[in-house]
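Section 3.1: Structural characterization of target chains.
Under the original work plan, the team committed to producing a structural model for every single-chain target entering the pipeline before any wet-lab resources were allocated. The record below documents one such target. The sequence was received from the expression subgroup and is listed exactly as submitted; it comprises 430 residues.
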Amino acid sequence: MSKFSQNSEINFTQIIPNLTDQEERLMPMECEISTWSIQENFLTSPVTLSNLTSIQNHDIPMLCLKNDLINEQILDSDFGRQLLEVFENAVRRGEKPFYTKLINEFIKKTPYTSEKIFKQLCVHANKKRFGSLLGCFYQHGIGTSVDFKKAFNQYKVSAQLGDSLAQAFLGRCFEDGEGCVKDETEACRWYKLSAENGCGRGQCAFGVCLFEGMGVSKDENRGFEFVQKSAEGGHAVGQCNLAISYEEGSGTTENKEMAFYWFERSALNENTSGQYNLGRCYEHGIGVPIDLKKAFECYLSSAKGENPEAQCMAGYCHDLGIGTKEDKEKAFWWYEKSAQNGEIIGQYNFANFYFNGTATLVNKKRAFYWYSKSANTGYDFSQYRLGYAHEFGAGALKDFHKAIEWYRKAAGQKNLLAKNAIPSIFNMID
């Protein structure tokens, strides 16, 4: 069990002794402080009225705002409950883009602005789940500007209050170094605490730590157990990761049919990775008969959800007419989306369209730009293409030494085209 308090609110009569009835009524209703600043040890140290005002500024949102804001407590109504349901549903889907998308879509259907809701969340920052949502608003810039440090601090407060979701978010901050110094051991510790407190997101993340040995000794069997708990609890990323475990036989016996089952469950929860991998199953017959039309439909659903790999595959299907009609213009459009979202094969395919003038005008310099983006991330075919560009001056100045450099990088990844190109270019130099 967590060593932190499981109470949802701070009781001022507990942390500030000997308040009179009148003083208690004034806390926090008539407090005019604009920020409530908390030291690292705040929640483990005694707090009194005398030292509350001397605590150093850590930019944690204030529990106590002016009366005109508190008069309308919209989060204490059904609206607050519905907002939390939307937030928790977004988290179950497991992908950051959906946090802002689903929350903003919900807010647009209400009479409230995101700025007003943000201010209300500041009032409710001492409530565990509302505090986690406030951290999300800071992290993703909902109703306020993006501020990773404030998001981290708010997640930390809510995590110390015992909110399992905040504990998982705090772990992710430490894993990514977002708003704090990157610390994989500390990330794993918070993921573990979140998992032990029954959070599907925490269970999934701690399972991945065990699979990869991040911040903890590698143990694929235990990793599988935690990912399975997450999946069975309805967490879409956990379902996708469980499917991968079954597909690869990691921490369990390989079972393609079970892999397909859990990819499908994840896809039904609108997780784009689940949709993409379900498309792979239909394309390659993994645990299910091959069905290229269904494969394309899965890739397209995932692509519309901004999954870069699926965007590349949607382009590929349109390019070659796999599961749909051949359409080079649509292929070009999806390759561009994928390329802009950083998918290295999408960048390579997009560059090819410029190089060959497919569905667009020939533009060797533009092709060289996208080959470079992909090559610098390590894709061997793009590295070969840069060697070719420098050898023949296709979109770049002729430079045999640079050509050899890129050919060697590609050949180091066993690219046969690059390997065969090296001897001929040496003959030119000689």
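The chain has 24 helices and no strands.
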